Amino acid sequence: MTMIFHKLIFIFVIAISCPVIAVEPDEVLDNPSLEERARQISRDLRCLVCQNESIDESDAALARDLRVLVRERLQVGDSNEDVLQFVVDRYGEFALLRPRIDGVNYVLWWFGPVFLIFSIIIAVTYVRNLRKISKSSNDLSAPLNDEERKKLKEIMGD
Amino acid sequence: MITELGHFCLVIAMLIALLQSVVPLVGTRRNSYGMMNFGSVAANLQFVLLLVAFASLTHAFVTSDFSVRLVALNSHSLKPLLYKISGVWGNHEGSMLLWVLILALFGASAVWFGGNLPIRLKATVLSVQGAVGLAFLIFIVFTSNPFLRIFPIPFDGQDLNPLLQDPGLAFHPPFLYLGYVGLSMSFSFAVAALIEGRIDAAWGRWVRPWTLAAWLFLTIGIALGSWWAYYELGWGGFWFWDPVENASFIPWLCAAALLHSAIVVEKRENLKSWTILLAILAFGFSLTGTFIVRSGLLTSVHAFANDPERGFFILLIFCFFVGGALILFALRSNSLQAKGVFSVISRESSLVANNILLVVSAFVVFVGTIWPYIAEIFFDRKLSVGPPFFNIAFTPFMVALGLILPIGAMVPWKRGKLNKITKSLMIPVCVAILLGCFVWALQAQKTILGPLGLFLGVWIVLGAFYDLYTRTGSKRNLTRLFRLPRSDWGKTVAHIGFGTTIFAISALVAWESEDIRTENVGATWSFSGYDFTLESVENLSGPNYFSTQASIKVAEDGKTLGTLFPEKRNYPVAQMPTTEAAIDYKLTKDIYLVLGDLQVDGKWTIRTYIKPFANWIWAGCIIMALGALISLSDRRYRVAAGAKSISRNEIEKT
After folding, report:
1. Which domains does chain B have, with CATH numbers?
2. What is the pLDDT, as a whole number, of residue B299?
């Protein structure tokens, strides 16, 4: 289901664009380091008429225009950040596949690390408490009881 | 006529599902064996009815009965038989029917293999399973009925999307569904445990095989989809972090966490509440995945046929089941007492760490997937979250998981000594570091990703072998290996698969190279140590398409390796072109050729990609799935299945 629908959209996009594939030979810059930068920037820019594709992968005409635009800006001497800003000024931040780290986007970028730290704190507290509760009733160095012995046998012998 | 029979069976199945969700549950309250046992009858019956319904829809597709609306919209008389069959689930209505069929299959399997389940638990599980089935059957019958007829009957169908006419993709959805829906069993067991108010080691033992099976199918389904994208979409990408891909990946991560935490419940009777919560979460994400794909929420820009009404219905189902389960969880989880005690350095703790990393990473993917909608609705910012974000935000979790995996897999239960394990893992660590450094020195472009991936891969794989080796005991008696439980073998194999995939993904991303050029027929060029000759470009025609096919000879050091035939196809009925890349699959790299357009100067655009270790990505997935399969064949689950006939007879006597 997932793939199918992903692809359905993809097809829809192909159907309305001409069938060429991603970067065309005539777009490639002669300067290899500039071209490499252009490719890098292309991967961070969204094809605006596609479903979740970068302009580097897309075959839509608009993606091609953007690729050419990126290369033009680089040749004029823009930095990578300048080029991205240029595209954002024209098309909005919707064009960026790597969302900017600002404003409410901090939540997006910091969600993982904060959630991770939070989980670790909870887990460590849980394990500590287990020991505290058990200290009175169940000493770790105490010999195994019948049930544990049975389980041990099962684990070892299985 | 057969179509009407299918339609009839579908409606009866809905009524049976209603009975299945109510009667056994009431039976547990009234202590009525007959009512509880009715669950088994109903589950079997529901499965048979839905099987007939599905078979009759398949019959309509195979015989190209265009009076059925669904067939007319999604099939064509000239289509090869395989794709007529796969067309059954290549659309919304048919795929939902497959969804409930598999749901009923799992319900019936609980009857077939669950002979040793306590009758009350089994009745409750079947009841919950029936309720989920009921919700989706109502959804199908009232919003997405696959059996509707149309008039006038069209002369021919509108054909299945050509990209989907592919053997790899034909079986991608059924596997994914087996995975998604398999998680409903874990969910049903979790809810049943909450209703019953008790959960013990035996529960962990019952729920684990279902989770293993679901995870196994999800792994295969995701791998098939990714492999298909690799060879079919024409630039060799294998994962796009697309919302619909994420919708299958998030449940996969949760299922992976769940099957690890269920071990702790089974062996140590700890982490019970957490495991229950995880089971609810995993199925919740499965439903979210269904919602995401069905509602068109995540494809609003280019929504094509998705129906908001259907999305709303699935959202209701989601809220009812997940919300209900969570409320039940809040009310009952206190009654689930933890028994086993463990220290910070122990197998339990390492499994907790595994769970934290998997679940947090699943949530990172989830938040990334829905962020554009949150930002737009609540903060009025129209933005995109694409692969660059996921690569940065998700990868560290997998690196951390890979780092702790071999240690966690070896640390003893309850309490372990870290220095003892690090000592015994010295050799794998050193080998992995040395290989990583070696490759770092070798590579032309200094990327950290390649060596890191190699280090992790070698560390995980060697660590898994080392774990087995230590099981031979102090006398290094290798015959002991054959007496190890299958679940231990399964664990080793699955971890080896995980290591392989991690290595392969980083190797492919780090060391892939690409060449784009235009060449005349007859021209020869070299790239990455190979010589390519464009021998000819011909026009051909297939069963339901026209094709432009190039013959490109590949040679290495003057020796011909073979000829590759990249194609461009055009499907006239669906009016769309596809690219068929030609791939020379090699052990350590793929040569990937794509034919582009004819330029004005008479030259053809040719793209050449060298994809190192591409096959290893899916080989790793297959190995992971194999590990799950071996684990599933463990004696303790088979013993459980063997008890079936006895207890069933006993019940029938009563």
Report:
1. 1-165 (1.20.120), 168-355 (no CATH), 513-615 (no CATH)
2. 52
Side-chain-facing half-sphere of B430: CA atoms under 13 Å: 6
Please report which helix (H) or strand (E) contains residue B578, including its range: strand B576-580
- Secondary structure (3-state) at B533: strand
Q: For the residues B308-334, what does the mean pLDDT come to?
A: 82
- For residue B474, what are the contacts with CB-CB under 8 A and spacing of at least 6? none
C-alpha–C-alpha distance, residues B310 and B142, integer Å: 10
Contact in structure between B423 and B416 (CB atoms under 8 Å): no
Q: Is the dihedral of CA B207, B213, B214, B219 positive or negative?
A: positive
Residue B422 to residue B209: CA distance in whole angstroms = 32
Reading phi first (left if > 0) and then psi (alpha if -120 to 50, else beta), residue B92 is in alpha
pTM beyond 0.90, yes or no: no
* Residue-range domain boundaries for chain A: 2-95, 105-157
- What SS3 class is residue B154? coil
Average pLDDT estimate for A114-134: 84
Cα(A132)–Cα(A128) distance, rounded to whole angstroms?
A: 6
* CA pair distance B190, B194, nearest whole angstrom: 6
| B485 neighbourhood in chain A, CB within 8 Å | 158
Q: What is the torsional sign of CA B631, B635, B639, B641? A: positive
Q: Are B34 and B27 a contacting pair, CB within 8 Å?
A: yes
Across-strand partners of B551?
Answer: B536
Task: Kindly compute the dihedral angle of the four CA atoms of residues B380, B385, B390, B394, in this order, to the nearest 10 degrees.
Answer: 10
Count of C-beta atoms within a 10 Å radius of residue A135 = 11
What digits encode the pLDDT tens for the residues B99-147? 999 999 999 999 998 878 888 899 999 999 999 999 999 999 998 899 9
- Superfamily holding A2-95: Cytochrome C biogenesis protein (1.10.8.640)
Whether the pLDDT of residue B458 is over 90: the answer is yes
CA distances from B65 to B98, B107, B141, B148, B160 (A): 19, 31, 20, 12, 15
- Note whether B541 and B78 are within 8 A (CB): no
**CB pair distance less than 8 Å for B356 and A111:** no
Closest CA to B384 of B376, B372, B394: B372
Helices B92-113 and B172-196: crossing angle in degrees, nearest 10, is 50
Q: Which residue of A has its CA nearest to B365?
A: A112
- Quote the radius of gyration of chain B (alpha carbons, Å): 27
Q: Which residue has the higher pLDDT, B599 or B356?
A: B356
> Hey, which residues 486-515 in chain B have their CB within 8 Å of chain A?
none
* Chain B residues 14-73 within an 8 A CB cutoff of chain A: none
Question: Between B302, B379, B596, which is nearest A51 by CB?
Answer: B302
Rounded distance, CA B468 to CA B155, Å? 63
* Sequence letter at residue B206: W
Give the model confidence (pLDDT) of B273-284 as tens digits: 899 999 999 999
Question: Cα B596 vs. chain centroid, distance in angstroms?
Answer: 33
ipTM of this predicted structure:
0.85
Tell me the β-bridge partners of B569.
B547, B578
